[in-house]
Amino acid sequence: MLRVGVLVSGRGSNLQALIDGAESGKLLATIDLVISDNPDAFALERCRKHAVPSEVVLRKDFESREAFEERLAELLKGVDLVVLAGFMRILSPLFLSRFSGRVINIHPSLIPAFQGLDAQRKALEFGVRFSGCTVHLVDESVDGGPVIVQAVVPVLPEDTVQSLSNRILSYEHRILPQTVRWFAEGRIRIEGRKVTVEGARYGTLPVNPEPEVF
Ligand code: GRF
Fold this sequence. Notes:
Elements (H helix, E strand, L loop, with lengths): L1 E7 L4 H12 L4 E8 L5 H8 L4 E3 L8 H11 L5 E4 L8 H6 L4 E5 L11 H8 L3 E8 L9 E8 L6 H25 L2 E4 L2 E4 L17
Helix pairs in contact: 1-6
The chain binds 5-O-phosphono-beta-D-ribofuranosylamine (GRF).
């Protein structure tokens, strides 16, 4: 069993997808610890309900970012994989060097499009026809590390930020647990920016518009 630590700041629906996967056995992993930097995060409720160990670590209780991250690293030292699931802070190279190639993030766009906050709103405002979500390795950039998997969803003319976010979220809840399982199976290969998943099949999603003329 892969030992997983999850960092959260809010609602925790992606955490829930991981908890469900762990409970059903499909994740091939255990969630050893959830750390929240927000004491009011609903994610913490989910931990209580499912008897998942959790800790609150507040940035304001530490003098520096380094000291805060030192505490995170100390709590996470027994885990094999660190998952950022709606964690609203950028981790420093110092922290990342401790977990080289073992920190992943879920982002609600097809990176490198719409990195940073409010990705779904940015996609809608830009007018793209397709968006989606990405699980990537975390490096010093913001939402820019090597891509592990992406899922594509259509952006519909009548979409609101909420409806697009929900459509994207339903795929987040699939690709994040899938990625954790790939790590557990030892199938992730990283060569610079190129990440491959041994033996993975990629299907086409039904996202293309019906042809009209061409
Ligand atoms: C998700 O949209 C995720 O892609 C982004 O933050 C949001 C977290 O949602 N990084 P939740 O807390 O997992 O429900």
